[in-house]
Amino acid sequence: MSGMDLRRMEPRLVKDISKEISTEFTMLRIYLDFTEAQFARLKHAYHNMDDQIFVMLNAWHDVVVRCGENPRHLLAAALDDCENRFLAVTKLVTPKELDELTPREREPREETKKLIKEINFTVPGDMAGTRPIFNVGAPNAVNVFPGGSLINHGELSLGIKYPEMLQSMMVHYYDKTLSYVPTSALNNWVQAKVVDIYMPPNLSLMVKDKDSGIFKKTAKSIQQYSNMFLNNGKYNRNIFIQGESGSGKSTFLAKLVMDWIQTTKSVKRIETDYSNTADSDTRVISANFFKDLTTLKEYTFVFHVTLRDSVNEFMILQMIKEQIIDQIWSDKKERKNMYKLLNGIMKRERCLILLDGLDEWTGNAGHILPALAVSHSQCDVLITTRPWKVTETEIPNQKISSLLQLEGVNEPFEISRRLLGCRDDCKDSKDLDKKQSEFKSYILKNDLRKFLISPMLLQLILQSWVEGTEMKGSTCEVYSLFLESLIKKANEQRRTFQKPSFRCFKRTQYIQPNIENVDRLAEAAFHLLFSNTRDCSLVFSDTDLERFGLDEGERKEFAFKSGILSAARKSSSLGSSFSFSFIHKSVQEFLAAYYIACNTHLIDAIISGYLNRYKDAFMDISQVFIFLCGLEISAANKLSSMMNECDLYWRTDKFPNIILSGYREAVANKNSDIILQLSNFHFRLPVTEISDLYNIWIKNTSNILSLYLFIDEGESQSSPERGECASHYEFDMSSCSKLKKLTLWGKNICLKDSSCSSISGHVVWIVLNSADPLPAIPCIERIDLIKVTISSRVLSSLLSSLLTLDHAVHCKLACCSITSNVQGSDTAVSMTVLNKTLEIGFGKDSPGLWDALHRLNIKSLSLDGGFLTVLLMKHGELLSQSLSSLTQLETLTIHLRAYIAIQPPQSLKNLNIYCTTLLPSKLRELMDTLRACTQTIESRLEFGCAMLTNADDNHHEERIHQIAPEEYIPIVQELQTLKNVSVNRFRILDRIRENKRRVQEFCWSAHSNGDIDDDKQNGDNFKDDLYTVFVRCLDDEIIHRISMRLLITPASTSRVSNQYGCNT
Fold first, then answer.
1. Which residues form the NACHT domain (predicted)?
2. Is the pLDDT of residue 360 over 90?
């Protein structure tokens, strides 16, 4: 390609590249520096995407060439950034050329970018009548607009407004399928209008943490559609709502569709009849939530898709065709016309697409999300899913415009009141008040409130209570009674278990007489859930029913009469058929867990292979695992080991909470011998929930690889009124021989060693080295401590252990309280430790840190405090004392804003000091100090010729005062007269330009030094990172700096006293 003209690309090449660009079109626009307004104008002017791409590239190319830039390099780099390297290296450059492009060659100059942003996309005669008019049908239609054109497809009956007709039909379809929701978890046919019983969800905004990359819930509550769909006045393109099973995600989407219907012209505004309940007053509570229907009015169409019914589909357009168009129209010809209309609408109209249940969609050919065609750029997408799917699918950041957390309902007892209000015996307000009060007392008495966050379980518990069945305890018990209530509808024969295999079956009466049917359903639930093909794991066919003997006779009647299985009619081009599913995914998961508990060999025989086959499988079966912890703990222990092995590879922060939930379920079912395996501990917990975590910890210490512990601030568990000491948990690190990463965050955490006495007020104690003298945590690679308490003695002990390791360890202390006999302090420190070498960067003067350095076995020490304001460095003397105690120290490197007096230890051989400012008097003081040493010291001095003072009374703001470099020359001249001092370099450098980009080259020029021998040492034979930092960060106000190299040999005491004959 070397013979090609690099200044211009042939139009044919631009055209060929245009044809190869598809899904990356939008991203390419960004990397080519076009604005969103230009992009919108481009799409307005050219309706064909191929034309849009070609016009954009052609215009961009001409500007780039006119500016003297290389379009091949810039376009290849942009394609590479859009992850289309193949197109870049096959059409524009060689792979080697692409890899060797410098940052400057990959990005246009600022003036070029400015001209690109001035490109205006227009077409000749761009006015009314000149743009193509899209229509469906009318092959012989006449274009009445001069200069325009009419795009025709199929047939058209004159006078029919197809878009309005589609909208009207969809409204009627939604009114039949989404306007009613079950009010009983036991009877799907007991339903009420969603607008009658709906209560606002507990929705919170989640944001991505910059440091960890993890989405975290914020305190911002989402209470209006504008909060959900808009960001700074612009509509979000891809919105995700995550929530656990049964939290109300599907119902929220149904209510959203009903609200959108109110904004359309296709129906009159629905007037909800409240006369059927005695509780119309409670509706005021929800009146202020999601009332801004004008936000939804911007969407001409809202398409609701259930992903579990389209597991084999990848394109969203095809899903809408099958789930909406095919359900409304049966005639093939009508469907064909509607398909074309649908495609046109999605290209030109603002649409909202609701995709319900991403966690129930298996994906297709490696795709992580259902896809919109690039031409459907007017469509926004709202997706619901379980939380694990967002984490494990590794969805790119640009695909998530907004992430929301749905945690059930805000007022669960208001939901229960509305559900009770639908009953015939609660029509009178007094009867309703009495019933509601009794239900609330029952919930609080039996500690069931934790289940009410899920609308599905709330319905179940309420219905069971109304029918006389009371629930107590675990999730397994709740689902056992749920199953019990379903079975009762098919067979009212009652018999209890004499010796129930599982504790949660103890109080059941209807399961035992129907155990054969339950076992057969459990077998189907398991094998479908863990099938080789995930397509049919949740929605399956009559062939699958036949495999498990559920297709005919008594078993089929039992499955469907009980409601454990449900059926739905599906329409397709081949005719109608039925699909089947369990009443809810969580019910299928409970039955699958029951089947595993009865057949524990399946863990090795089937589950092991399933986990190896799908990367996210260990998260997908999380609820099965939690149920298994309550049913059969030995099997759960084994399964946890397999799941933990998967987590070792994928490292998700969600998995530890699954183990924690499993542990709590096992405890709730009074199981013993709980040995759930977990290697990567990643927990953020309130201070009151440490106990369960601690019990998991003590069973895993020898296998732990990482510990991230964030303790939310709160009150201690002590009882001051009774004078009791605070309860605490000791996490002993001495057994953690494999631990590589340790992160501790919270004021309730204290680090201590085995010799420390009890420290009141801290709930979590981290014991570092109870197995002394062995190194604590010998495999550790990183330690992050934030807001924890640590004594200088413990910190010293930790550093002493780390200095013995043969690998680098990176440590960070932020906002930590370092207690010390000298003085306590808050600190901000980063450290790297490697084989008796310690590098410290500090942002605060920390007496506790200086105390911790005392007497450490360090050979090389680097201190970087170059960003600490001089006047805040108040404990230099303590630091100097600690430095003098380092009897093994051979190399000391210091970077500071201003010089502080130091006391070099007798072992010191190399001293490197880099100061932003250094007064001549301080230089004399330093020389006196060094010449007093009894060993040979090679010293490197770099400093700015300036003085720092504070600005008025503000100790955080400094002023720089220049010092003429000539004031330092007499000192050097005197040094050169001394026999024990060799001045190998004295060089004055003048600033020749500002260092705005923080690069050290070309900012300084050597200055003539008169009679001084400029440089006997023509270069440095070692690399010093702190020197690089010093030069890059030297204030632009400093216009002179000095570079010195000295070799100082021991001098007699008599010659040291006042060599210079002047005051310092």
1. 237-360
2. no
Cα 136 to chain centroid distance, Å, stands at 45
Amino acid identity at 769: N
Q: Do 764 and 713 meet the contact criterion of CB atoms below 8 Å apart?
A: no
Give the alpha-carbon dihedral of 976, 977, 982, 985, to 10 degrees.
10
Cα dihedral angle (637, 643, 648, 650), rounded to 10 degrees? -160
Answer for the pair 686, 680: CB distance below 8 angstroms, yes or no. Answer: no
How is residue 726 annotated by DSSP? P
Least confident residue range of 216-225, 263-272, 674-683, 742-751: 263-272
**Residue 720 reports pLDDT greater than 60:** no
- The residue among 129 and 38 whose pLDDT is bigger is 38
| Number of C-beta neighbours around residue 567 at 10 A | 13
Pairwise CA distance, residues 492 & 557, whole Å: 14
For residue 898, CA distances in Å to 760, 876, 905, 922, 1064 come to: 40, 11, 21, 9, 16
How far apart, in whole angstroms, are the C-alpha atoms of residue 571 and residue 577?
7
Pull the structure tokens for residue 562. Answer: 């009980």
Average pLDDT over residues 481-495: 84
Question: pTM for this one?
Answer: 0.65
> What is the DSSP code string of 518-566?
HHHHHHHHHHHHT-SSGGGSSSB-HHHHHHTT-SSHHHHHHHHHHTSEE
Least trusted range by pLDDT, from 121-135, 682-696, 959-973 = 121-135
What is the distance between the alpha carbons of residues 696 and 712, in angstroms, rounded to a whole number?
19
Measured in residues, the chain has a length of 1064
**Structure letter (DSSP) for residue 757:** P
Dist. CA 724–CA 726, nearest whole Å: 6
> What 3-state DSSP class applies to 409?
strand
Contact in structure between 864 and 889 (CB atoms under 8 Å): no
The burial class, CB within 10 Å (0-12 / 13-18 / 19+), for 96 is exposed
φ and ψ of 467, to 5 deg? -90, 5
At 235, the amino acid letter reads Y
Give me the residue label for tokens 């970087």.
Answer: 864
Q: Calculate the alpha carbon distances from 239 to 200, 388, 407, 736 in Å.
A: 18, 16, 16, 42
C-alpha distance from residue 156 to each of 152, 164, 341, 942 (Å): 9, 14, 11, 84
Cβ neighbours of residue 95 under 8 Å, at least 6 residues apart? 89
Q: Tokens in use for 1058?
A: 């006042």
- Both tokens of 161, joined, read 């407004």
Q: In whole numbers, what is the pLDDT of the chain averaged over residues?
A: 81
pLDDT at 208: 80
Provide the pLDDT confidence category of residue 1056 given band limits of 50, 70 and 90: very low
Judge whether 565 and 583 are in contact, CB under 8 Å: yes
Tell me if 409 sits within 8 A of 208, measured CB to CB.
no
Q: Are strands 891-898 and 910-917 parallel, antiparallel or unpaired?
A: parallel
pLDDT one-digit tens code per residue, 113-164? 888 888 888 654 444 333 333 333 333 333 323 333 333 333 333 233 567 8
Distant-in-sequence, close-in-space partners of 645: CB < 8 Å, separation ≥ 6: none
For 711-714, the CB contacts below 8 A with 24+ separation are: 711/685, 711/686, 711/687, 711/745, 711/746, 711/747, 711/748, 711/749, 711/763, 711/764, 712/684, 712/685, 712/686, 712/687, 712/746, 713/687, 713/746, 713/747, 713/748, 714/686, 714/687, 714/688, 714/748
Q: Which residues contact 838 (CB under 8 A, 6 or more apart)?
A: 799, 803, 831, 832, 856, 858, 860, 861, 862
pLDDT in tens, 500-546: 999 999 888 899 999 999 999 999 999 999 988 877 788 888 888 88
What is the end-to-end Cα distance of the chain in Å, rounded? 68
